[in-house]
Design brief:
Elements (H helix, E strand, L loop, with lengths): L4 E6 L8 E7 L17 H13 L4 E7 L1 H5 L5 H16 L18 E5 L5 H11 L5 E5 L2 H4 L1 H25 L10 H14 L11 H17 L1
Parallel strand pairs: 1-4, 4-5
Antiparallel strand pairs: 1-2, 2-3
Length: 227
Protein backbone atom coordinates (compact mmCIF):
# COMPACT_ATOMS: atom_id res chain seq x y z
CA UNK A 1 0.00 0.00 0.00
CA UNK A 2 1.34 3.43 -0.92
CA UNK A 3 2.40 5.53 2.03
CA UNK A 4 0.08 8.49 2.55
CA UNK A 5 1.33 10.05 5.79
CA UNK A 6 4.51 10.52 7.77
CA UNK A 7 5.17 11.38 11.40
CA UNK A 8 8.23 12.85 13.08
CA UNK A 9 9.15 14.92 16.13
CA UNK A 10 11.44 17.74 17.19
CA UNK A 11 12.63 18.53 20.68
CA UNK A 12 12.93 15.24 22.56
CA UNK A 13 16.35 16.06 24.00
CA UNK A 14 16.28 19.75 25.05
CA UNK A 15 16.17 20.89 28.66
CA UNK A 16 14.15 23.95 27.67
CA UNK A 17 10.79 24.07 25.95
CA UNK A 18 8.26 21.68 24.51
CA UNK A 19 8.42 18.65 22.27
CA UNK A 20 6.53 18.89 18.97
CA UNK A 21 5.19 15.97 16.95
CA UNK A 22 3.90 16.48 13.40
CA UNK A 23 1.99 14.40 10.89
CA UNK A 24 1.82 15.25 7.19
CA UNK A 25 -0.74 13.49 4.98
CA UNK A 26 -0.67 13.78 1.21
CA UNK A 27 0.08 12.12 -2.06
CA UNK A 28 3.91 12.20 -1.99
CA UNK A 29 3.81 13.69 -5.48
CA UNK A 30 2.11 16.79 -4.04
CA UNK A 31 4.99 17.61 -1.71
CA UNK A 32 7.13 20.65 -2.58
CA UNK A 33 10.55 20.03 -4.07
CA UNK A 34 13.48 19.96 -1.70
CA UNK A 35 11.91 18.05 1.19
CA UNK A 36 14.58 16.43 3.34
CA UNK A 37 15.41 15.59 6.93
CA UNK A 38 15.00 18.96 8.67
CA UNK A 39 18.51 18.75 10.15
CA UNK A 40 19.92 18.97 6.63
CA UNK A 41 18.06 22.18 5.79
CA UNK A 42 18.75 25.78 6.74
CA UNK A 43 16.24 27.52 9.03
CA UNK A 44 15.06 29.71 6.17
CA UNK A 45 14.54 26.76 3.87
CA UNK A 46 12.64 24.87 6.56
CA UNK A 47 10.33 27.81 7.14
CA UNK A 48 9.63 28.20 3.42
CA UNK A 49 8.87 24.50 3.02
CA UNK A 50 6.63 24.44 6.10
CA UNK A 51 4.68 27.40 4.71
CA UNK A 52 4.30 25.64 1.34
CA UNK A 53 3.04 22.50 3.06
CA UNK A 54 0.44 24.40 5.07
CA UNK A 55 -0.70 26.49 2.10
CA UNK A 56 -1.38 23.52 -0.19
CA UNK A 57 -4.98 22.29 0.01
CA UNK A 58 -3.86 18.83 -1.09
CA UNK A 59 -1.76 18.45 2.05
CA UNK A 60 -3.03 17.96 5.60
CA UNK A 61 -0.76 19.00 8.46
CA UNK A 62 -1.22 18.39 12.18
CA UNK A 63 1.09 19.32 15.06
CA UNK A 64 0.86 18.34 18.72
CA UNK A 65 2.81 20.01 21.52
CA UNK A 66 4.05 18.15 24.61
CA UNK A 67 4.89 20.63 27.37
CA UNK A 68 7.66 20.45 29.98
CA UNK A 69 5.02 19.90 32.66
CA UNK A 70 3.76 16.82 30.82
CA UNK A 71 7.31 15.59 30.26
CA UNK A 72 8.15 15.96 33.96
CA UNK A 73 5.06 14.07 35.13
CA UNK A 74 6.17 11.05 37.19
CA UNK A 75 3.57 8.66 35.77
CA UNK A 76 4.76 8.77 32.15
CA UNK A 77 7.88 8.74 29.98
CA UNK A 78 9.07 10.48 26.85
CA UNK A 79 8.36 7.54 24.56
CA UNK A 80 4.78 7.26 25.82
CA UNK A 81 4.22 10.99 25.37
CA UNK A 82 5.70 10.96 21.87
CA UNK A 83 3.46 8.01 20.95
CA UNK A 84 0.34 9.72 22.31
CA UNK A 85 1.12 12.95 20.46
CA UNK A 86 1.90 11.12 17.23
CA UNK A 87 -1.31 9.11 17.42
CA UNK A 88 -3.34 12.28 18.04
CA UNK A 89 -1.73 13.96 15.04
CA UNK A 90 -2.48 10.94 12.85
CA UNK A 91 -6.10 10.84 14.01
CA UNK A 92 -6.60 14.50 13.19
CA UNK A 93 -5.67 14.01 9.51
CA UNK A 94 -6.78 10.39 9.01
CA UNK A 95 -9.82 11.26 6.91
CA UNK A 96 -7.92 13.71 4.69
CA UNK A 97 -5.86 12.93 1.64
CA UNK A 98 -5.80 11.46 -1.81
CA UNK A 99 -6.52 7.88 -0.75
CA UNK A 100 -9.58 8.84 1.33
CA UNK A 101 -11.45 10.76 -1.33
CA UNK A 102 -12.02 8.27 -4.13
CA UNK A 103 -15.33 6.76 -3.05
CA UNK A 104 -17.91 7.33 -0.34
CA UNK A 105 -17.29 3.92 1.26
CA UNK A 106 -13.54 4.23 1.23
CA UNK A 107 -12.30 5.04 4.74
CA UNK A 108 -9.13 5.78 6.67
CA UNK A 109 -8.44 2.03 6.65
CA UNK A 110 -6.97 2.66 3.22
CA UNK A 111 -4.31 4.90 4.75
CA UNK A 112 -0.80 3.75 5.53
CA UNK A 113 2.03 5.74 6.99
CA UNK A 114 5.53 5.75 8.40
CA UNK A 115 6.62 7.00 11.80
CA UNK A 116 10.21 7.86 12.66
CA UNK A 117 10.96 5.42 15.50
CA UNK A 118 12.14 6.91 18.79
CA UNK A 119 12.38 3.55 20.54
CA UNK A 120 15.37 1.25 20.03
CA UNK A 121 12.80 -1.36 18.97
CA UNK A 122 11.20 0.21 15.90
CA UNK A 123 8.60 -2.52 15.49
CA UNK A 124 7.44 -2.09 19.08
CA UNK A 125 7.27 1.68 18.66
CA UNK A 126 5.12 1.37 15.55
CA UNK A 127 2.81 -1.10 17.25
CA UNK A 128 2.34 1.24 20.22
CA UNK A 129 1.51 4.18 17.93
CA UNK A 130 -1.02 2.03 16.08
CA UNK A 131 -2.63 0.94 19.36
CA UNK A 132 -2.91 4.59 20.44
CA UNK A 133 -4.71 5.75 17.30
CA UNK A 134 -8.47 5.71 16.92
CA UNK A 135 -8.28 5.77 13.11
CA UNK A 136 -8.02 2.49 11.20
CA UNK A 137 -4.61 2.95 9.64
CA UNK A 138 -1.57 0.88 8.84
CA UNK A 139 1.62 2.11 10.54
CA UNK A 140 5.26 1.23 10.04
CA UNK A 141 8.01 2.64 12.24
CA UNK A 142 11.60 2.87 11.08
CA UNK A 143 14.79 4.43 12.36
CA UNK A 144 15.99 7.27 10.13
CA UNK A 145 12.65 7.42 8.34
CA UNK A 146 13.00 11.18 7.89
CA UNK A 147 15.92 10.51 5.56
CA UNK A 148 14.17 7.77 3.58
CA UNK A 149 10.56 8.92 3.17
CA UNK A 150 9.60 12.37 1.90
CA UNK A 151 6.39 12.37 3.95
CA UNK A 152 8.35 11.79 7.15
CA UNK A 153 10.87 14.41 6.05
CA UNK A 154 7.98 16.83 5.57
CA UNK A 155 6.75 16.04 9.08
CA UNK A 156 10.24 16.62 10.45
CA UNK A 157 10.30 20.04 8.77
CA UNK A 158 6.92 21.03 10.24
CA UNK A 159 7.86 19.82 13.72
CA UNK A 160 11.23 21.57 13.65
CA UNK A 161 9.72 24.87 12.49
CA UNK A 162 7.15 24.67 15.29
CA UNK A 163 9.90 23.97 17.82
CA UNK A 164 12.08 26.82 16.49
CA UNK A 165 9.16 29.27 16.70
CA UNK A 166 8.52 28.15 20.27
CA UNK A 167 12.15 28.75 21.28
CA UNK A 168 12.14 32.06 19.43
CA UNK A 169 9.13 33.20 21.46
CA UNK A 170 10.90 32.23 24.70
CA UNK A 171 13.97 34.20 23.64
CA UNK A 172 11.83 37.24 22.81
CA UNK A 173 10.47 37.16 26.36
CA UNK A 174 13.52 36.09 28.34
CA UNK A 175 16.56 37.01 26.25
CA UNK A 176 19.02 34.57 24.68
CA UNK A 177 18.17 31.00 25.70
CA UNK A 178 20.17 29.23 23.02
CA UNK A 179 18.82 26.14 21.31
CA UNK A 180 17.49 24.71 24.56
CA UNK A 181 19.78 21.68 24.36
CA UNK A 182 22.00 20.77 27.34
CA UNK A 183 25.12 20.86 25.13
CA UNK A 184 24.49 24.51 24.19
CA UNK A 185 26.65 26.87 26.33
CA UNK A 186 24.12 29.68 25.90
CA UNK A 187 21.34 27.47 27.25
CA UNK A 188 23.42 26.38 30.24
CA UNK A 189 24.43 29.96 30.97
CA UNK A 190 20.81 31.10 30.76
CA UNK A 191 19.67 28.41 33.17
CA UNK A 192 22.44 29.11 35.67
CA UNK A 193 21.77 32.85 35.63
CA UNK A 194 18.00 32.42 35.88
CA UNK A 195 18.28 30.14 38.89
CA UNK A 196 20.78 32.45 40.60
CA UNK A 197 18.52 35.44 40.14
CA UNK A 198 15.09 33.85 40.59
CA UNK A 199 15.88 31.02 42.99
CA UNK A 200 14.16 28.43 40.82
CA UNK A 201 13.96 27.10 37.30
CA UNK A 202 11.87 28.84 34.63
CA UNK A 203 8.46 27.31 33.99
CA UNK A 204 9.57 26.15 30.54
CA UNK A 205 12.51 24.10 31.83
CA UNK A 206 12.26 20.33 32.15
CA UNK A 207 12.84 19.92 35.86
CA UNK A 208 13.52 16.20 35.56
CA UNK A 209 16.48 16.75 33.23
CA UNK A 210 19.97 16.36 34.71
CA UNK A 211 20.93 19.83 33.46
CA UNK A 212 18.10 21.39 35.46
CA UNK A 213 19.05 19.49 38.60
CA UNK A 214 22.66 20.57 38.19
CA UNK A 215 21.65 24.23 37.81
CA UNK A 216 19.63 24.06 41.03
CA UNK A 217 22.43 22.29 42.89
CA UNK A 218 25.03 24.79 41.71
CA UNK A 219 22.90 27.72 42.85
CA UNK A 220 22.35 26.08 46.24
CA UNK A 221 26.09 25.51 46.69
CA UNK A 222 26.80 29.08 45.71
CA UNK A 223 24.28 30.36 48.24
CA UNK A 224 25.79 28.20 50.99
CA UNK A 225 29.29 29.43 50.16
CA UNK A 226 28.12 33.04 50.49
CA UNK A 227 26.35 32.41 53.79
Amino acid sequence: MERSFGVDEAGRGPVLGSLFVACVRADPAALPAGIDDSKRLSPGRREALAADLRDDDRIAVAVREVTPTEIDAPDTDLNALTIEAGAAAIDSVASVGADAEATADRTAADAAGVVDACDTDAERFGRRVREATTADVEITAEHGADEKYDLVGAASVVAKVARDAHIGALADEHGPVGSGYPSDPTTREFLAKYVREQGDLPSFARRSWKTSREALAAAEQSALAEF
